[in-house]
Each structure stands twice: as C-alpha cells, then as structure tokens.
Write a structure and sequence with these properties.
Number of helices: 14
Helix content: 40-55%
Radius of gyration: 29 Å
Structural class: alpha/beta
Shape: globular
Distance between the termini: 9 Å
Largest sheet: 5 strands, mixed
C-alpha cells in the first residue's frame, strides 16, 4: 500500500472465555499476531470555517477602534475555500465530472450548490490562474522544439434571437507541448503543456500563438502549420505515428496487404528509439545512432514507396497511406538531424486525450468564456500530471497564495517549480504512483 497513507490499527482479540487451553485448562499467552492491510475510504467531509475578526476599542477616550484584518482569500467574499475550489476544478478537468454531476454529489451531502454557482467559481479561479499560464507560455516559447495537435470543441451560441434553433458552433482546443532536456536527454525533464481555445481552425490561430517562437514544430500534416514554415523561423517535423496508423488501417482492410512490410520497417525505427531511452543515450549519441542506423532504414522505406506507389490505387486505404508518406517525406526524416527531436507527435496527442475524454462527458462548452477557462485549467492540471505533481494539492495551495504573491516571482508558482507551502501535503503530492495489487 502507498506509504504516505494514514494507518489505523484495529486489534481483533479473542473473547475472554476463549483464552484458555482446551486440553489442560491453562491460560493462553500472547505469542504474536497475523496482520494484513486493507484499503478503505472515508466519506468526503465538508466543514464550515467561521472567520471571526476580533475588534478592540479604547475604553478611556472611546475614540479608537481597531479590527483585525481579514485574511487574503482565493475568492474575495466568496463562500468557497481554496481546497473546495481546487476540488471542483480537478473533478471537472482532471476526472471529467460535469458540473451537474458535482451538483448532485453535493446534494447527497446536504449541500445545495447550483451548477451556476460552481461555474462562477471556475470562472473566478481561472482568471486568478491566468498569469501562471502566461508565464508558462513564455517558458515554452524559448524551447526549440514544440509539439502541437488540436481537437474540436462544440460550443453553445450566445442567447440571441438570430441564434435560436441553431446548432452548437464547432470551436477548437489546441495543445502546445514541450519539454526541457539536459545534455543526457532524459534526466531533469520539465514538461510544459498549454491549451488554447479558438473559434476556428484557421492558420492564423497557430501563427498568433507561436508568433514569437523559433525552432521546430512537430505536428500532423495539417496545412494550417504551413505559414509558420514560410516565416523562416520555424521548421516543420512530421509524425511517424500518423504514417504507421494509416498503414495499420490498410492492413485491417486487407490482412494480406503489403502494408505489413511497411509496418515492420517502421517498427525497426521505433525499436531504435526505445533503445535510446533504455540505454539513456546523450543527445549527441542519439544523433549519431540515428545517422548510422535510422537513416539506412529510412532510405529502404523510400525505395519501397517508390517501387509500390505507382502500382497502388491512389484512393485505396493503402494508396492514401503511401501518398501521405511520400508527400510529407522531407518533414518525416528531419527528426534525424538533432538528438533532441522525437520520431512522432505522440507527446501532444497524449495531451489532447484528456480533452477528448472530458468532451464525451460534458459534451460541449456552455460559452466561449467556458472554453477559455477550460484551456487555462487544463494547462495547469496537465502540466502538473506531466511533472508528477498532485493537481489538487497544487491548485489548493496556489489559489490561496496567488492573491498576495509578487508578480516578479510568479514563476515560483509554476507546476514544475512549485514547492508546497503546506508541509503536510508535500509528501503526498510528490509521492510516485504505486500499484495496488
């Protein structure tokens, strides 16, 4: 069982009448105990904090009255404490629990909180947390390698007469991920994950977010990233995971397809990448091995495509897979130029999954304000998860500290720099996840 959990020892003893020997009638002596551990849950407990500000007056002249100052709060004059605010945020954006379900859960505890009230709390908290996301963006843009992906986010239209009867708008949530890497490429990594909510999928949204970025952008083959390459500051990198997925689709259509040959070749590229991580090679070492071993495999793949593409129906699943690989060949082979680069875009695709799972539960955003609040909260929660920080402990602590924290020291509160001010939670927040058999 996880070591940081509280232990309660329950003693199970014999009845007094059973503590005698059945043979001679003598009293039995304690010789030991058999123990086992059982994981148990305590029903969530809610409390009401009553803040009493003491008031003093001068009885001599009766001209002086002093009142103890009120503490700085996560939500000024609000009824929600920082722990409760953090719980609502984590429940919705980490555990995908829509507000109406949270409303029902509170009701079971005898607490009446409407989903409108819960949304107001989320809106207020996201505004408080926005400076942290802006500071994270500054850190992301100085990296030389960013991963990007996007997904749809249905959003309700504004309540106007002209929108009556219309369906939800199709807005988008983009993810931009990066990781700081040291010389050995594997230790002391600090992942950064940012989300951006936009009213469309036009290239202007990507260009605006990455306007101050210089380096490599790894993504799928969506044309919206092309204007970035035209600036001369950004170099596009393709994703072999997309290639492998398309050939796998062709293999599912026809198990006897020659797509199986391509799957084996791509598998060799990924075998090398796994070997780099197991051996803990340095960035320079990764580049050298890729030049020696990955390059010949890529050349073999290119010859295979040149041989079979003219013989394949372009609109078939196999033809589409070949066309994708050929059309994006230059970007697909760039990862061998630098040991810091990765073979695929799985890093950002993994980060987009929480949004997709959440969307299946809450189905749509209630407004564009909700979309922007979600992007802010998702950014902090996912960055916490990537840096092995407990999102609840982080948000509960930061929401309480940020009203009085100096803006020049804002980076102290970023998930990858954060040190919990509450010592009792620090161990639990940083404890590695453990399997429970």
């Amino acid at each position: 069982m996880p070591a940081h959990l509280e232990r309660q020892t329950i003693i199970h003893d014999l009845k007094p009448s059973d503590k005698t020997c059945g043979e001679c009638g003598g009293f039995l002596s304690l010789i030991g105990a058999e123990t086992r551990e059982q994981l148990e849950a305590i029903i969530q407990k809610y409390i009401v904090k009553v803040h009493s500000r003491l008031k003093y007056a001068c009885k001599c002249c009766q001209a002086c009255v002093k009142l103890a100052s009120a503490p700085h709060e996560a939500m000024e004059k609000g009824i929600a404490g920082p722990n409760l605010l953090a719980q609502v945020l984590v429940d919705k954006y980490a555990d995908h629990l829509p507000l109406y379900r949270q409303e029902q859960r509170f009701a079971r505890c005898g607490i009446v909180l409407s989903r409108g009230t819960l949304w107001n709390w989320i809106s207020h908290a996201s505004r408080s947390l926005k400076p942290l996301v802006e500071a994270m963006k500054a850190d992301l843009l100085i990296l030389n390698h960013v991963f990007s992906d996007d997904t749809t986010m249905p959003t309700l239209r504004e309540r106007k007469p002209e929108n009556l009867g219309k369906q939800t708008k199709t807005n988008y949530i983009w993810v931009y991920a990066g990781v700081t890497k040291t010389v050995d490429a594997w230790s002391n990594q600090k992942p950064i994950v940012l989300y951006d909510y936009t009213p469309g999928r036009d290239a202007e949204f990507v260009s605006d977010f990455l306007k101050d970025f210089t380096g490599y952008v790894q993504s799928d083959a969506y044309s919206g990233y092309s204007p970035l390459s035209n600036t001369g500051k950004v170099v596009s990198i393709g994703c072999w995971a997309h290639v492998r997925r398309k050939f796998n689709d062709a293999l599912e259509v026809n198990p006897q397809s020659i797509a199986g040959e391509m799957m084996n070749k791509i598998g060799k590229l990924y075998d090398l990448e796994r070997e780099f991580k197991i051996k803990g090679l340095s960035i320079d070492g990764i580049k050298q091995i890729r030049q020696l071993h990955s390059r010949p495999i890529l050349e073999d793949i290119q010859k295979w495509l040149e041989k079979y593409q003219p013989l394949t129906v372009p609109k078939s699943s196999l033809g589409k897979a070949m066309g994708y690989a050929v059309n994006n060949w230059q970007t697909l082979t760039r990862y061998t130029e630098d040991g810091r680069l990765e073979i695929g875009n799985n890093r950002s695709e993994r980060c987009i999954k929480p949004v997709v799972i959440g969307r299946k539960n809450y189905m749509f955003m209630g407004s564009e304000k909700g979309g922007h609040a979600a992007a802010i909260t998702y950014s902090l929660i996912e960055t916490c998860k990537q840096n092995r920080v407990d999102p609840w402990a982080y948000l509960a602590d930061v929401l309480q500290r940020i009203p009085t924290h100096l803006n020049k020291n804002i980076k102290e509160l970023l998930p990858y720099n954060w040190v919990d001010s509450n010592a009792t939670q620090t161990h639990a927040a940083h404890a590695p996840p453990q399997k429970i058999a």
